[in-house]
Amino acid sequence: MKPNKNTDITVLSPFEENSQHIEMYLNVIFNNTQDPIFVKDEECRLLLVNDAFCSLFGLPRSQIIGKTLAEKVPPSEREYFLSIDRKVLEDGKEVLCEETLTIGDVQTKIIVTKKNRFIDPKGKYFLVGVIHDITQRKRTEEKLELAASVFTHAGEGIMITDAAGILVDVNETFSRITGYSAEEVLGKNPKILKSGRQSPAFYADMWDALLTQGHWRGEIWNRRKNGEIYPEMLTISAVKNAAGLLQHYVSLCTDITSLKEHQGQLERIAHFDLLTNLPNRVLLADRLSQAMLQCSRHEQSLAVVFLDLDGFKQVNDTYGHDVGDELLIALSVLMKKALRKEDSLARIGGDEFVAVLAELTSVEDCEPVLERLLQATSTPVTVGDVVLNVSASIGVTLYPQDNVDADQLMRHADQAMYLAKESGKNRYHLFDTAQDDAVKVQRESLEAIRSALDNHQFVLYYQPKVNMRTGTVSGVEALIRWQHPQRGVLNPIEFLPVIENNPMSIEMGEWVIDTALTQISQWQKTGINLPISISVNIAAVQLQQPDFTQRLRALLAAHPDVEPHYLELEVLETSALNDVNHVSTIMNDCMTLGVNFALDDFGTGYSSLTYLRRLPANLIKIDQSFVRDMLIDADDLAIVEGVIALAKSFKRDVIAEGVETIAHGTALLQLGCDLAQGYGIAKPMPASDIPEWISHWKADDAWQI
Ligand code: C2E
Ligand code: MG
Ligand code: MG
Which of 22, 249, 415, 529 is the most core-located residue (most Cβ within 10 A)? Predict the structure, then answer.
């Protein structure tokens, strides 16, 4: 092994040292080194480049030799680039320079070139450069710098531990959040931050997630150096190396104290009344539902107490809202004191409060509390230099006695509160479930009747009225029936009382008149040559409608083929009693239209002579209650006789209702009452049965006296 004089290259035996071989070796080495190498002449033009150089620039040798390749350097650096070359050629001092290359249009390479000057045998300078591509290294450095800067300046606190969980690095934000400097914590376990607020199970879950999924995220309470406990959002990631071995845990944490506070504020606004700090309607609903649940579990009762201040509006109007507000605050404090610890109080609007009295064993349990509430609200309150004195009206309902949902309970307590107000304020009123049930049933019945009317479920049955002496049919009485889809044919007692004071009764009454008129006209058309007068019952409210006569005229006009005298209106004796003048005027007006009147259920009212004289009814119907017992009860018989005599003296016709037997008929005939109606003659029947019945009916032989 001999060192070559001209080069540093050591040639190994067994090769012979000859220049040809050396040139070949040099050439091979030259072109196989990874670092690009070039030789430039005195004009800085490239004389010789190796393969690595060509591939660095992405050019064939032919496009390189003879060029400076200064264009591959960004324009701003070009002059500098050439000046270095010139300087090296001039000074002969080795230079190590960093350069940026633009290869193609975009690709940028960062290189470090070691440039040296040499002299050729002819005494000319030439420059040899060895390039080292440091692009990758630079990029890595930049990334590391960036990462370091992110680490330092991150808004989140960062903790890095080794695989054993020992802190190896923390950033500034970590120190700011926790109060611990890096020196104080490095080498320690993050447990120093433990607040003690989390259960061992919490940490067990965290470790489980870290070990199985490689990360954990959640809220955690930690302790600062100064002892303060604070909430943070924490993300921990396990970092593994390429071989999958755990290297570090990296934790990012954000102090969420202010977020929590803000959340808390929002929750307060959502659930509390800002003025009195009492729960609002939303929270109340929640508490009430909970208390109801509790009640069912412990078989206890609770009371919902709806409280509305009396005279609060005047306070506001007289002294202004600020004073009003002060009063509300003061009263809410007093009311709270009046309650037991298991009760809760909410403000649900202006001067409306609701208390939920829990854990009651009997109704009586809540009475002292209610008394205290009344006392609290009527306590004089001094605001500034005025003394304010209001009171409260309180409505109470008890659960589960009032077995409805939370919403309904509130409504019931509210309703009861109104009754307390109506009956004089400064008192409490207990909600009456039985009455409420009745109201509910009434409402449901009304709805059902409404829909029955709309769905044409009402029909008229007809009951014949006859002359027992002559054996003729004098007419029929229209009696309404409800053909109920489920319950079958219903009698008027089942539905008329429900609509007694409802406008629907007017509508139904008009429907009856209209249907009866249609029926008369139909029977006329079928040609049954019979006395086909129909009497219809008129409810008191209907008769006393201011426009009753006009309505009747319109109904008659709608049936021009029906002669009005075929229509008879039955008015209850009792319905005429309220205002005999008014009723007699209406009756007189209607009679001018041609219709007839009958006084129904006669004997059940005062049956005074004056009334009878003033009410222009052609026919008097003896109430069936007297007829029924006339054969066995002397008093009833006397009444029947009396009514018959009265009718005779006033020249009115008289008919007995409720004639159930032949014997009744016989007795009535003997008393001089020829007209009769009753089950003994015929029960009410559908219209279609009437013609057949009429054609077959015969007065009983016993009546042929
Ligand atoms: P009302 O006008 O006195 O009618 C006579 C009632 O007595 C009818 O009962 C009839 O079915 C029944 N009745 C007839 N003969 C006998 C009998 O021999 N024995 C017994 N126990 N009862 C007999 P209904 O149909 O149940 O009607 C009851 C009441 O309802 C009627 O008494 C009338 O005041 C009223 N009403 C019926 N239909 C209407 C109507 O369309 N409009 C109005 N406003 N009220 C009506
Ligand atoms: Mg009647
Ligand atoms: Mg009657």
Answer: 249
